[in-house]
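Is this the right way to post structure tokens for a design question? Let me know if I should format differently. Anyway, here goes:
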């Protein structure tokens, strides 16, 4: 059976690894920490992400290592890179972790047989082209293949994608990636094949569109509440128009989490470098902030007589353990800082993170499950 290596088996990479294993590939996952790799190999690792622990438990052809050289020892020709690309203060992504891997590949020298490198990490548009020549010299083909998944349903979303986005120009590499998705997908997605930079732009622009839709829904809802109208009914009716659709058009908290806010900022940055002012993504971020201010004011008014407020979960999305850019948590913090006694009901793991971040700003109750 064909072998695949996945460098970076974190939140996204591990799901990809396990999904590919489940459809018949032999997978070698490479990551940095020996402790983590041991937990994966001994099937002790417990994930908050649905299905991951079960898939790991039943995976017979998945192994992990900290040694990148194993890829060559085992003659693996298809290599995915799914390492993190943290945001810099400017809004653009750092590619330092990917660069470090390319350096390592360079140390292993030019390959006799062609190797296919697939970058899944979210990159700044233009990055992949900038490394293509180096990789070509090492006899690697390069494709960019970002994923459109949501935290809390990564395994399922990888099996049922609407579209498979492939950036690249080598027909054989594109066909081999399509063949991988042919096995992985349980539906018939649309294959969108384009240049590297177009695919990098598409990934960011998609999330920009979604954040714009969320910010629009919340702005309409805020106005409706002020005007004495009905947010949900208005948005349901707008979404019933098939040109618009109901997804991401609900009234609620602003967008947060590890992808939306940073992709929006990165796109703004990229547009600026390309010589364009991306007014929409900037306005979307401002609208998200304005909605937070609206919610804080409203909650303070609604709970004027109430000293204590209970938050049942403050992660950015229920069922995950992610606090990054959580709008629920931001609201809880704003209320606590304005004098309310805030109690947060969460899992022990999340409570530990909250204590590390906020000390005794909140009180806690442990979630039953
Ligand atoms: N998690 C998601 O839902 C999601 C969705 C879309 C896109 N992405 C993108 O995918 C990428 C990965 O995201 P993630 O959430 O899985 O990040 P993560 O931090 O959970 O996982 C990244 C993993 O890469 C490992 N790593 C870093 N440098 C390495 C190296 N040199 N060799 C081997 N392993 C290395 C880290 O130890 C970590 O386990 C990011 O670019 C992110 O923007 C993530």
């Amino acid at each position: 059976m064909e072998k695949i290596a996945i460098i970076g088996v974190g939140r996204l990479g591990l799901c990809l690894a396990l999904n590919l294993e489940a459809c018949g590939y032999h997978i070698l996952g490479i990551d940095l920490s020996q402790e983590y790799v041991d937990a994966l190999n001994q099937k002790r690792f417990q994930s908050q992400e649905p299905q991951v622990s079960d898939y790991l438990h039943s995976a017979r052809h998945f192994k992990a290592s900290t040694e990148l050289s194993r890829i060559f020892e085992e003659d693996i020709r298809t290599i995915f890179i799914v390492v993190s690309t943290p945001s810099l203060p400017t809004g653009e992504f750092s590619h330092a972790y990917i660069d470090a891997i390319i350096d390592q590949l360079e140390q292993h020298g030019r390959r006799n047989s062609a190797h296919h490198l697939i970058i899944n990490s979210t990159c700044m548009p233009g990055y992949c082209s900038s490394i293509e020549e180096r990789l070509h010299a090492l006899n690697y083909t390069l494709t960019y293949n970002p994923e459109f998944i949501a935290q809390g349903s990564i395994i399922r979303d990888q099996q049922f994608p609407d579209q498979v986005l492939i950036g690249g120009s080598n027909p054989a590499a594109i066909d081999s990636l399509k063949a991988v998705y042919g096995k992985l997908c349980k539906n018939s997605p649309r294959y969108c094949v384009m240049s590297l930079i177009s695919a990098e732009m598409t990934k960011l622009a998609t999330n920009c569109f979604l954040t714009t839709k969320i910010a629009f829904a919340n702005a309409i809802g805020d106005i409706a509440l002020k005007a004495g109208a009905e947010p949900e009914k208005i948005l349901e009716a707008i979404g019933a128009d098939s040109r618009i659709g109901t997804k991401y058009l609900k009234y609620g908290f602003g967008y947060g989490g590890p992808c939306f806010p940073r992709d929006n900022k990165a796109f703004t940055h990229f547009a600026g470098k390309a010589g364009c002012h991306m007014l929409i993504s900037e306005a979307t971020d401002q609208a998200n902030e304005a909605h937070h201010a609206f919610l804080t004011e409203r909650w303070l008014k609604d709970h004027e007589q109430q000293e204590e407020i209970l938050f049942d979960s403050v992660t950015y999305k229920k069922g995950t353990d992610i606090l990054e850019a959580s709008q629920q948590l931001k609201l809880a913090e704003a209320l606590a800082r304005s004098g309310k006694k805030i109690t947060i009901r969460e899992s022990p793991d999340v409570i530990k993170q909250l204590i590390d971040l906020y000390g005794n700003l909140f009180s806690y109750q442990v979630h039953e499950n």
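Format looks fine. Someone answered above. Worth noting: The chain has three domains: 3-194, 196-302, 304-369. The radius of gyration is 22 Å.
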